[in-house]
Every structure is written in structure tokens, then in C-alpha cells.
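Friendly challenge for the regulars: who can give me the C-alpha cells for this chain first? No prize, just bragging rights.
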Amino acid sequence: MWRIIRRRLAIGFIRSSEWVLARVGRRRPYGILTLELTGELAEEGSEHRILGVLRRHTADYLALITLLRWARDDARLSGILIRCNDVQASWARLQGLRRSLERLRAAGKKVWIHLERAGVREYYLASAADRISLAAAATLDVTGLSSEAVFVLDALEKLGVQADVVQMGRYKSAGETFTRREMSVPHREMLESLVDDLFSQLVDAVASGRRRDPAAMREALGRGPFVASEAREAGLVDAIAYADEVEKDLIDACGGAATIERGARHRGASPARVGRHTRRARATFALLHIGGMIKPGDSVPGREGTSATGAETVAKALERVRTRRDIDALVVRVASPGGSVLGSDLIWRELMRVRDAKPVVVSCGDVAASGGYYVALAGTPLIAEAGTITGSIGVIAGKASLRGLYERLGISKQLVSRGRNAAMYSDYSPLDDAGRERIYTQADAFYRDFVAKVARARGLTDDAAVAVAEGRVWTGRQAVERGLVDELGGLEEAFAAAKRAAGVRADEPVTVERFPKPRRLWRVAVDVNLPHYGALEELLPILPSLRFVMRERVWAVLPFQLRFF
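First reply, four minutes later:
Bragging rights claimed.
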């Protein structure tokens, strides 16, 4: 069991601002815990400070699985009711959360889930419950899995922008967004394999949870959406009811005398009391988040956690982790599609320096691909969920020529240069053969180094490393089979591995300190967030890539973003 201090966690997304941190203080007897899971389940919570005094917290995935861990160890608790609606989380976080629910059931707790606004994500979680109920007027919006690849070549041509991209690895299709109108054969082969495996994981999990034949469940999941009566007739839910009726039924199922504990008051305690209690932990582990695009320089905060991880910010944090004698191990949570090759390599180097001093364990989140996988290679062990999107061992390089756009705007440029390739990076001229050869040489050198690092870190022969590279993207389950990942699991398994490596007993609590430290609010105030909804949101996944096309030369980045419907 592990506890969290130093950066206290507010469980805001389950509609409570009370602390869920330590087993302290007296509480009235109760038997049922109720939670509401809705909205963004952030990979990394945020805490903004004003002059180091006032703080604003947002909750995260770690806070929730910590709560569920304590719930399953609580002898007073006999049941848990979760209202699960519009959960915004991707596959790996959902798998870790579902595993926590399965462990609650295995501990003898009744787990009931009530749905009102439910799709594939919510139903996947609910299938781990003893009982699923659906509101009478609700729709179970389960329609299988699909993914979309976006291509912007025609839009760029209309704007007068020409993208010139070199890819290392036949599956490294990130540049195809800008240079093609449809998927190439390798791109489609890779995406078909990913969706097949993820859908198989979905079907197997739901069929097991509902005790149904997998073939029948596969057929049922493709027939949606379902109105409430159809969902019950198909055996997808157990009851049609309102939330208050479900709560009363659970009280009866727990003996009729159970009282309700709402949300995060479970295990709650004041910050001062939490601090006194958790200082008894003998070991301290650092937890470092690497999320969003990877870049040189400073990290960029986002709506929930980090939108871009800066190598300089991470290096400063890791220097503190490496030199502090009271930190016994480092757990790194990687949730990044990659980005700058330089930024990725600088972070990898700092992680290896920490590894020379103390254990480093890596836990992969929804995506740890390309540059994200590059930095994850420092982990021993390297742990991923079955649905983690990983691999993508390859690089792309290139530039964008804006001459056509300038001409449409009535802008012209004249270049005066010295040196054969002095104008190679000008946005006014396309690459010539000599420039393309130089960019290819850069990309090839980085790709060879990437593959060599994979071979050394994963104990593979050169030929075996090349066979799993080529820019090919894998699920976590596929990556384990190919030696790219050590084991399947999430943050809880990563902390267990860190305990073993640091010589800490499995049942001994540890203090977890987060890195990097939160930024002061006055530095965050100037950050501008783009709208959450509307047509612009469809372009958000490719905007970071467009920025890198304009500013960076060589990238290790995931070739697409998987979004499931």
C-alpha cells in the first residue's frame, strides 16, 4: 500500500473537495461508498500556486486508483456504487481503473455501476461490476471501435503550403498527414492490426465480466446503440432503474442497515493530520510525469496536467531526484506520443543518470510511442497496459515551404546567402536534391541510434530490433510478445516493482513526491487554451505536428492519434 503527500490530491472529478489520503481519525460506521465518475480523468493532476501559498488542485487518475485501493482494504466497506457517465479517458487508464474494480470484487466488496450517459468507455468499466443498471430514458451507445486518420494535403495545397517529409521506417507514417490523401498500405496494415487487437481486448474483458460467450459478445457490441429495454434483453445490463432506486437496492443487498459514505470523504483527513501520519513512512519514491509532446526547453502546462514536456524542465527535476538521498526510487509515468528527437534524447540521458544512482521504473499510460518509447527505455522494468499504444521506433524529418501561401497573400522574399545549403531551412524555397540528402542523412543517423538503444535496453539482437522497428506501432499486449515491454500493468504494479527494487516490503507504506513541481499561477496566467468543442477540436491532434513541421527538423512522433467511438 502507498500514500501520497507533499502534493496533496483533491478528488475533484468525483465531485468532492475533501482529501483522500490516509487511514487516520475516527469515522462513523458505514457500509457503502458512492462515487461519481464523470468528465476528464486526467493522467496528471495540476496544482497552481500563487506566491507559493494559495493553491488550486485538479484531480487525476492516480488519486482515483489510490482511493479504490484503500476501499478494498477497508473491512468496514461492504459495497460501492459508482455513477459512471461521459468519462474522458483513453484505453490504458480505463484498463487500470477496471482492474481496480475487479480487485474490489475479489476482496469481497459488492461493486454496482449505474449508467446514464454511456458509450464504449463507460460500458467497458461497468462490465467489471457485479451489477449494471441503466436509466430508463438512457441509450447504451455501444457501437464497437473505429479510428480515423486525418489527411490535410488538399488543405495545404489550397493554402499554398508544400510539406517535404523523409520517413525512416516504412510504417513511420506521421508525414502522410501532410503528403497523402489516404492511408498507404503499411499505414492501413498497422492501423487494422491495432484496432483488431484493441477490439479483441474489449470483447474478451466484457465477455468475461458478463459471463458471456466472446463470439456472442462481439456480435452484440457491434449492434448498438441500444435503448434501455434492448440493452436489458441483450444481457448487457441487469436492471433499468433510477440512481436513487439503485442506491436503495444496494443498501438492501448489504443487509439493510448500511449507511452511505459519499465520495472522497472515504478515508478523508485534514491536511495537517495527513502530514503527521504519513511522515512515518520510511521510504520516499519520486513520481515523474512525461506527458504530451516532447520538446527542448521548458514544459508547457495544459488544461489537465502537461500539454508538452520540456527537456530542460525534466532535467532540473531529475537532478533533484538524483541528488536527494531521501528519495529511494523513481517511478516515471510516460503518456506521450513523442516529438523532438533532441528533447527525447536529453530526457533519456537524464533518466539514465538517475538509474545509476537508484531504481527507475517506467509505467506507460495511454500512449508511450516513438519519442515517448525512447524515454521509456530507461525503465527497469518497463511496464505497459495491454491497450497502451507504444513502439513507433522510427523518425521523420523535413520542412514546409510557404512560398505559395506568401504569394497568395501578396508577400515576396528575396534571399541572399553564402554556403551551398544556407537556404535549406528557408520557408520560401522547397528542398532541392542536396538539401533532401542532408536531411535524409540526419534522419538515418537518428534512426540507427534509436534502434541501437532499443537493442541494448531490451536485450535484442540488431536484427530483432530492426524487425520490431520500422516505425511500427504496437499495443502493449503486442509489445510484450515482441520483447519491447517487460510486463503488463499500471501504476499500482509500477510502485510494487519499485518497492522490490528498493528493498521495501510489499505491505510497507511509502511517501510519493511528485515532480516537476507546480508552476506559480502568475506564470500560468498567460497560457491560452483553445476551445473544447466545435470543428476546431477535430484539428487539435495535428496542430502540434504542424508546429513541429515549421520549427523542428527531425522528429520521433506517433504517426496518428487513435480516437475511439
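The mean pLDDT is 83. The longest helix spans residues 185-210. Your move, everyone else.
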